[in-house]
Structures are given as C-alpha cells and as structure tokens.
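A favour, since you know our structure tokens better than I do. Could you add the entry underneath, on a fresh line?
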Amino acid sequence: MTLRDPGYMHPVLDCAESQTFEKDYVQDDEVEEWKAMNCAGAAIAHQAQLDVQEVLGERPIRRALILVGKGHNGGDALIATGHILTSNIEAQADLVFPYGLGHLRPLVSRCLDQLQAACGNRLRYLSLRSGDQGTIEGQLRLFLGDEGFDLCLDGILGMQFKPPLRMPALELLKWTNAHEGIACRIAVDLPSGIGDDADQDAFRADFTYATGIAKSALFASANRSKVGRIRYLDIGFFEQSVEASRYVLSKAILAFQRSLRLSQTHKKTYGHVFLLGGSTTMPGAILMATRSALKSGVGLVTCFVPESIVAEAAAKIPEAMWVGLPEIPDHGGLALEGIGLIRQHAKKASGWVIGPGMGTHDETATLIEEALALSDAPVLLDADGLRPSIVARDWQGRSCVVSPHVGEFNRLLGRELNTPVSEMDVLKFAKDTGCVVIMKGSPTLISDGELAVYSCAGGPVLARGGSGDILSGLVGGRIAIPDNDLLVSVAEGVAWQGSAADAMAQRQGQVAAQATDILSFL
C-alpha cells in the first residue's frame, strides 16, 4: 500500500471545486443531500462532544449557542444540535437566525422541524431584525442574557461566501467573537466569513470541522487565527482517488492498529531500529525517543548513547538494548572514536533515528556522517541531527526523513528563525534534498517534494519540550518495519502521535500534561 492508494488521504479543494464536486456527487437528489446532511450533523456532534472535553472535562454540556444560516451549513448545525441535546439531557440550546426563519432552504426547515419535535422544550429561538449595530446587539443581549456558553456552533455561511460580510451576520459575528463567556467555538465546514476569499470579521473558531471536503482556505496562513484547529470529518465522499495539489490524511491511516498480526512471526519480523543520540547534559531526549520507539510496533530497539548514562537508562527502559559510546571530554557529547562500536552493529539496523539530545559539537557531527556511511537503512534526522551539511548530503537513493519545527527548518535554509514557512518552501526543500519532510506545526505538513499532505490531529497540548522526541521515536520505529512504504510509515507516526495527543487533552486538559503522558494514549 502507498499513500496514494484510496482511503489514506483525501483531496483538499478550493470552494469552487468543492461546489462542483458536491453538485456532481448528489446530482440534485434530495435523498442524497439529506443523507449527506445527516452524516455531517452526526459527525459534528460526535467530534464536538470530544473536543469540548478539553475545557469542560467530564462535565456535560449545559448551554449551547447555535448560529443558523439559511443554507446547508445551518442544517448540519441543527442536526448536530439534536444529537448533542440527546446526549446531554440537561442541556439547552439558544438558536440565533441572522436571516430569519422565513428564508431557510427546504432541507434546513426540515432539520429545524425534526429538532423541534425531538427537543422543543429545550430550545429558544431568536430571529434577528435588521437594523443598526445597537439594535442587533440589544436583541442579542436581551435574548441571551449575561450567562456564558459551553459551546458555540457556527453554521451561518459556507463555501459560497464572497466578501464582504453584511448585516445582520456581520454584527452577529462581531458580537460572538467579542463574547468572553464562550468556552469552545466550533465552525461548521468553514468559519462564516471565510471562503476562497476572507473577511477580517470572520467567525473566530477554536475548531473548524471540515465536513466531507477539506477546503483549501483552511490551510491558508492568513486564515490560521480564524480557523483554529482543523478537524477533517470524512462522510464518505471519496471512495475513489481524486487528483489535487494538496491532501489531508483520513482516519484510515491508523487502520494498522486494528488489524491482526500473523501468528507465525517473531521480533525480527518487525525490524530493528537504531537510535543514536543523547549527551550527559541532555539525556532525557533520547530516553523519550526510545520509549516511543518501543511503542511503535518495531521488533527491536538498540540505543547508542554516552557510556556514562547507560546503566541508568537500561534500568529505566530495560526493553531496549543499550550500547555505551565514548564521550567528548568536558562536553558530554558523543565522541568520534565511538564509530567502531557502531560499525560492529550497523548491518543489523532496518531503520535509524539520529539526533535527539546529541548537542552541536563538531566531533559529534562527524560521528553522524561516519555512521550514515555504514548502513543504507532509512533514517530519520531530528533535533541536533538536523544540520545543513548532513541533510544536504547525497542520499544516493537511500530514504531520509527530517522532522523540523519552524526554527529548525529556517536554520537549515540559513534564514531568520522566525521566518514564516510556506507549503511551497517545504515542497521545494523536499525536492532539492530528496528527503521526506515532516514540517511540525498545526497542522503538520508531510511532503516528499511532490505530495503535500496535512495531518490535522494534535494541538497545543503538544507545545511542550519532548513532544518532538516522542514523534521521532514513533516515526523511526514505523520506517524500520520491513516492507512498510516510507510515506505511509511517516504518515502513520505523525497521525498516531496527534490522535494520542487529542485523546490526552480530552482526558486531562491541555495544561497539566507531560510529553511522556502521550505514550499512555497511543
């Protein structure tokens, strides 16, 4: 299986392309439209009740604000509201209709009737009357009061939006964006006010749920502050491959977790990953990478580390094999004379992870170069292994993966560390070097120089020291498993860590977490 096979990734389309695709898909069949709308609404409700746990913990949703437009985004929001109210028996929903009830499209009216029949005693309606800012703001304050909301669903405008925003939606969005009492803001498909072009007063989402098709506007750097975290909700549109300039990973990339291994296998069946890294001043990074490599599914893990930390490392992580290497005096990094020990073992490796916690001494850089010459197994370079001279070497058909954050990527290019990194920058770098790039961020971009594939899993809970080391061990373990496609293995590792991070944040919040807590959620 390769990443291009149907199922692993789905196309990212602009709004015009998405409209054409959906029209061809449903072919003006109201039954198909209704089916798609119900699938989207159910998926939105399910995901919202997971994501809101990051702020509510185990407390159920009690009050929701639902912004309902006249188009199908409004219908999706209404169906989602029904599922949410059914699952949270004490919850109530305030529905705000900026264009009134009389302008709803037929299927949206059907959604409202269905919701009213099921949960009518827990609903309140406000149909806004056009007027100046003071009039609309007054209507909202009078109707909604001063209490806060656990959740706000934005279903006002969709992919047909063209700037500028107009009254009354404009003032409703301004009021909602300024409201400090909303715990979690979720946009259906796109934040209202963002299409192929965007308005500065667009809805400010914590999460945007791309239902059915992930729109390219969600990945534009100019929209990041409005879009928040992207969730791609697959509702079955892409059973066949569709060519596009960029893609988003689907949940099918993690299908390997739900398949049985062959009964007649042994540890060597699943590969042997070598980790080279660590120093006496930064021993933790290589230990974290080792722990995640052991969780990756690889059969064997061997770590080459400074000899003075071997005893403690082996006591903490006995499942790995530990080889102590000579240290640079008064520095604590790995000395070049350790190459002999690496040479004794190198042919056993089916994959490498090089870099976590190594430090930046020139002698250690030479050790990396010498070690790379001893094996043709795929390698992941991270952290202190991300040196321009090493990444720019001739890989001669050998597979190399690099996993920089923004600062490390810019350092490789010789740019200011805070320079914004574009998708084109990443594709060009991958093409020029022959490396697969994992451009860490929200979302994370994977590229081999031709494909641009986004993983939307994960979030700010990963914004802590050690998260990158966990990722390097996980991906390193996946690429070391024999017969695995390189890009598929990389995508598996990235999506796996992100999904585990989401589960961790939903369970224990974003603040009181350590990078190694993720391991328990893999």
